[in-house]
Amino acid sequence: MKKITYIILFCNLLLLGCSSDFLDKAPISNANEENFYKSQKDIETAIWSAYNSLYTLYGPESLPSFYGELMSDNAVSDNAAGRIQDYESFELHTMTIDNELVLNFWNNYYKAIYITNNIIASAEKLDFPNRDALIGEAKFLRALYYFDMVRAWGDVPLVTTPISITNAYAQGRTSKTLVYEQIIKDLDVAVAKLPVKTSQRFVGAASQEAANTLLAKVYLTIGNKPKATETLLKVYGRFSLVPYADLWNLSKKNNASSIFEIQFKGGVSNPYSLYWAMFSPVDNRVVTAWGGGYNQITNDLWNAYETGDPRRDLTIQNGYQTPNGSIVNVKFPIKWKDAKAPVIGLREASDNNFIILRYADVLLMLTEATSDPKYMNEVRSRVGLPAYATIGYPAKYNTVSLALEHESQVEFACEFHRWFDLIRTGRAISVIKSSSKNITITDSKLLLPIPFLVINQNPNVITQNEAYK
């Protein structure tokens, strides 16, 4: 299979820092209905833009990163990063409506959705080889984008046609029930149109198994465990669990566990990744050239690992030594470590991919859907740990649901799962209260605010989430 690396604009890759003109920054609105793609070539080019969106939407500074990890008991921000208010508001659940990161995240999703809407509408009017696969890929990506948004914001404007963002906002927010219905429709089409992974158009393209895995997660999120089980069993057995270290081995990308993986290529002239640079300690200049200080590890996560679990030391580095011999006591993620990456602008241009969906997720979701620990035990067996409720298993995880919560935390640590998982299972409020963060929140604070500028430009149409009124 020919491997194609996504084309990317450098500015798309680096959504870093905060601009000084926040109050003048409006949501994206310059797209219009005339920007349809007219030919097969146009659509094939456009699909690269759709995949390129993943670089920003799933980068180290992204909604999944900060909502999935920083809001949970897994991670904290580094105060020395100089971005205290916007970053710590995720960590401490002190979000305000003028948080620039929230506006950036919102805008980036709608930019990506606009691209997929154009691809789908244009491709459906044409007839050419691979048309169905392209439509399936676009619908998979659109479903992924809306799935992130509806979980983070609740009701959001649902746009499925190539209208401008301004016109989209004018129609107001759509109930999350209808948004989920559209996500399921998109994924049903994606499953029908996409090839299986072994026949995907290129390494990294969406596949039938990726669509089914995402669809199952959607079903779990809306509480439909029977449909989740049925869907997951279509993927079960098609992949395998590789050694944990291999998941981030630069020579073993797109391995037998990978279901959907964002493709990066190291080097200053390539679409490189920034996870290693930005998740290393801030301004360390020892571990990495500089260090972003994002998603530093809590003691809660460090202590969650069982004795002898190799995943801890493959996930977290506990401190580092400075040139003068002093020890800096900070825990930080090392899954995306790339010690040989070239440096550009004090940031490593790394070769690491980012896995959005992998086989362990299928297995743990099967346990969640069926309450059968046998699937979870496959994950534990891979790292040499005892099966649930057998000799040597931690007694404090005395129900399948608690055992699964623990297993998901240590298996997917730093991979943007934790807060999403806790909200899905109804455990977010109690877990964050009992963690070292000791934060008391209510159900209404589980959602992010609608950005101030979005409401300000549509005051009679777009309403604010309850906690931020």
Tell me what you see in this structure:
By secondary structure, the chain is mainly alpha-helical. The chain has three domains: 23-194 and 439-469, Alpha Horseshoe (Serine Threonine Protein Phosphatase 5, Tetratricopeptide repeat), CATH 1.25.40; 223-263 and 355-437, Serine Threonine Protein Phosphatase 5, Tetratricopeptide repeat (Alpha Horseshoe); 275-291 and 308-352, no CATH class. Helices cover 43% and strands 7% of the residues. The protein has 19 helices and eight strands. The protein has helices spanning 10-13, 40-57, 63-70, 84-92, 100-123, 131-153, 165-170, 176-193, 208-221, 225-232, 275-279, 299-304, 311-315, 359-370, 374-382, 400-411, 418-424, 428-434, 452-457, and strands spanning 75-76, 258-262, 296-297, 316-321, 327-333, 343-344, 347-348, 354-358. The chain has a two-stranded antiparallel ribbon with strand order 1-3. A hairpin with a 5-residue loop joins strand 4 (316-321) and strand 5 (327-333). Helix 8 runs antiparallel to helix 9 and helix 9 runs parallel beside helix 14. The model is unreliable at 1-34 (pLDDT under 50).
